[in-house]
Each structure stands twice: as structure tokens, then as C-alpha cells.
């Protein structure tokens, strides 16, 4: 007998008892899992290797772009008044004349 073989029905009673207890709907992330299963994302995208790679690359690009914009926003907010864009135009013109 090979333990955990799907072709064997000679499991001990304790194994059959544990298999009868299902975690479906009891987990904290059950609503998230139900939502992801309803979108069929796995069936259409993640099941096929080329689509998976394209999805991962596109997702990485979108995440990097959005993270960069968020960091730039907070950087500009923290350094307001000290950046070149915040200088008055007459100060910039005076520096160019010198």
C-alpha cells in the first residue's frame, strides 16, 4: 500500500475521518477564494504557460508604474517648497543671468 495514493482505498479509519471534515466555507479567506473562483481567472489565464507569463509581466509593469507614482507623490508632498519646481520664476531667471 502506498500512502496518499489516489488509487488505493486501504487507508486507515482515521484518514477517512479526516477526509470527511471539510474546510470549505470555514476559512477566513473563503469569500476571497469564492470571488477568485467566480472570475475564472485560473481557467482563462493561469492554466496556460504563455498566458501566465504575459499576465505576470504585465502585472509587474503595472505594479512598478503605480508604485513609482505613489512614491513620487509622497516624495513631492514631503519636500514641498524645497524642490526646483517650487522655486519662484524670478529666482531661476536671476541664476541664469549670472
UniProtKB/TrEMBL annotation:
Pfam families: UCR_UQCRX_QCR9. The keyword Iron does not apply. It comes from Theileria orientalis. GO terms for cellular component: mitochondrial inner membrane; respiratory chain complex III. It comes from the Eukaryota. It is a single-pass membrane protein. Keywords: Electron transport, Membrane, Mitochondrion, Mitochondrion inner membrane, Respiratory chain, Transmembrane, Transmembrane helix, Transport. One of its GO terms (biological process) is mitochondrial electron transport, ubiquinol to cytochrome c. This is Ubiquinol-cytochrome C reductase. InterPro entries: QCR9, QCR9_sf.
Amino acid at each position: 500500500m502506498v500512502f496518499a495514493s489516489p488509487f488505493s482505498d486501504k487507508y486507515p479509519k482515521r484518514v477517512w475521518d479526516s477526509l470527511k471534515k471539510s474546510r470549505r466555507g470555514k476559512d477566513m479567506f473563503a469569500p476571497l477564494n469564492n470571488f477568485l473562483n467566480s472570475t475564472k481567472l485560473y481557467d482563462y489565464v493561469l492554466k496556460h504557460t504563455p498566458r501566465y507569463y504575459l499576465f505576470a509581466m504585465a502585472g509587474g509593469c503595472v505594479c512598478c508604474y503605480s508604485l513609482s507614482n505613489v512614491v513620487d507623490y509622497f516624495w513631492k508632498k514631503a519636500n514641498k517648497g524645497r524642490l526646483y519646481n517650487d522655486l519662484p520664476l524670478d529666482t531661476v531667471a536671476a541664476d541664469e543671468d549670472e
